[in-house]
Hints:
Chain A is mostly helical. Chain A has helices at about 1-25, 30-50, 55-60, 65-100, 110-140, 145-170, 175-205, 225-235, 245-275, and strands at about 30, 105-110. Chain A has a two-stranded parallel ribbon.
Amino acid sequence: MLAAFIIVFREVMEAGLIVGIVLAATEGIRHRAPYLWGGVLAGVGGACIVAACIGALSAAFQGNGQDVFNAGILCFAVVMLGLHSVWMARHGREMARQMREMGSAVAAGDSTLLAMAIVVAVAILREGSEVVLFLYGVAASAHLGAVAIISGSALGIAAGAAISWLLYRGLLTIPVSRLFSVTSGLIALLAAGMAGQAAALLANDGIIPAFGYQLWDTSWLLSTGSLVGKALQALVGYSDRPMGVQLVAYLATLATLVLLSKYAGKTRVLQKQEI
Amino acid sequence: MANPPSPALTLRNHGFTPDHIIVPAGTRFKIRVTNHDSTPDEFESPALRVEKIVVPGQTITVFAGPLSPGSYVFYDDYHPETAHGVAEAK
């Protein structure tokens, strides 16, 4: 039961951390619940579909299908996080002002909610397909320990969801005036980490050049195999032995999102001044 | 890179055969993993930086290295208690 708990918790925690940041970053946007729950459902449904097709997926792209697929959905999520950064640069200050004055914001942001729902779906799909396959294996082998393994897995899912909720509530303790600057920074790091992981997946299969397979080695200090290492990998893209192309993708994405949010915010101010 | 050896592993009864392989240090290499169990497995090793699902009857190939000489643990993430092994780079 403990083994099952740990296996499932590790996967759900990774998705949960991303969802926690998304929840904080969308605080105060009207009608967010149906979008984000839709993202959760799409992620779970997608995970089941991926799990069902995993054999065919693996065989695709000369046996690199799993990596190419994961890199693809990660890149898609990075673009969605970029769209959110632009939206937040335009509306974040106004929302923070409303939340200070009225206790809640009323910004309508269907475009950014759709983008963030996709990020939630991708995060759950990616980790969820591994959980689905694990549970399928348990169910298919149907041995005596199955009940304990299923209970352990259920607890793992609950604990992962609790981490997500705690991160969300923890972020909300940040004063409203600074909340969206913090979440924008976290979103930029999240996107950079995803872009880096996507690049590493493709480079590992020789699809893109690696520019060095190991720039440095900090696995003695913090291994990405450990729980903390895995959490930092999901949150800020930590890698104990990054590839060159991984670092390039990381820094390029981080710089793009930071510049994008600044530039997008500025054009908005200029437009207002012109009027 | 002149054809580095590519060790082959099989998973049966949720255990690896062999559970100790020699891989070349300082170069890229492949490991092939075949799943002879009736349920999916996940070949994983943070030390080798690989993570890939293997469905029953399927053979996957993962790429790793270049490694410094030493021992690198790998395991089946779905059955880590019984299915684990060591890749020794030299």
